[in-house]
Q: What sequence folds into this?
């Protein structure tokens, strides 16, 4: 699977400025700390610079975290080690501190990114669950007309799978070219299992998510071929199946 950014939408919009800040903030901080002279120890200065790495990595942008780590190390070398204002280090202790600053900053950046990814995954799972529960509640309460409920679930299925569009079609799937999402979350096309994790959803044909009432397929959601490759996880595929199943009780017998 191609690795995708974990940054939030707001972070992606501001990514260039975040990366600029990831470089400028440690440099300015190093300059201020250097101006204080012996009032700040090397260890304290290194810890302060690491804070900017944590701040940059918390945006979910790995590049920003790496830039902050490198800028922090360069600032420490230039402003806080002898000889000052030169990229040269005369003290063995300062060399060790600089190396540790880079290593620790990169490690902290990766840990922060891991935590960010876990948080985003938890938010997605909560969103999926809310979607399934909302659909089930609408069916149970019967407040929404069938057509409106189908439209709501179609939008949810498209959102979960990262597709461009989705519409409901009555009856089972008759076109062998259409990839079908099984109840266990497996995707098959032409009798062959599609490795969604590696190749993504098919972009040349449709994907069908059957709506079952017992053993009978009473309809299916037809996901429009996407203009970009989407790599839904196994969890997302199973959520799409669960969403489709909520529609079955509301359909005419």
A:
């Amino acid at each position: 699977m191609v690795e995708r950014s974990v940054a939030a939408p707001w972070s992606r919009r501001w990514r260039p400025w975040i990366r600029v800040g990831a470089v400028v903030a440690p440099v300015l901080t190093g300059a201020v700390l250097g101006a204080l002279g012996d009032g700040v120890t090397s260890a304290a200065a290194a810890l302060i610079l690491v804070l900017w790495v944590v701040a940059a990595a918390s945006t979910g942008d790995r590049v920003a975290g790496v830039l902050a780590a490198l800028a922090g190390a360069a600032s420490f070398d230039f402003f806080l080690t002898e000889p000052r204002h030169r990229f040269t280090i005369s003290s063995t202790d300062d060399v060790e501190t600089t190396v540790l600053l880079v290593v620790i900053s990169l490690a902290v950046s990766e840990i922060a990114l891991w935590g960010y990814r876990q948080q985003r995954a938890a938010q997605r799972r909560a969103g999926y669950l809310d979607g399934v529960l909302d659909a089930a509640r609408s069916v149970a309460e019967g407040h929404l007309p069938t057509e409106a409920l189908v439209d709501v679930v179609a939008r949810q299925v498209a959102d979960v799978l990262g597709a461009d569009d989705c519409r409901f079609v009555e009856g089972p799937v008759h076109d062998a070219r259409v990839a079908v999402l099984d109840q266990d979350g497996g995707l098959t096309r032409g009798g062959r299992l599609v490795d969604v994790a590696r190749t993504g959803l098919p972009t040349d044909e449709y994907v069908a998510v059957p709506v079952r009432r017992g053993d009978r397929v009473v309809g299916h959601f037809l996901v429009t071929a996407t203009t970009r490759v989407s790599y839904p996880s196994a969890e997302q595929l199973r959520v799409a199946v669960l969403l489709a199943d909520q529609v079955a009780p509301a359909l005419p017998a």
Residues 145-250 form one domain. Strands lie at 166-170, 179-181, 187-189, 192-194, 207-213, 216-223. The chain has two domains: 9-119, 145-250. The mean pLDDT is 82.
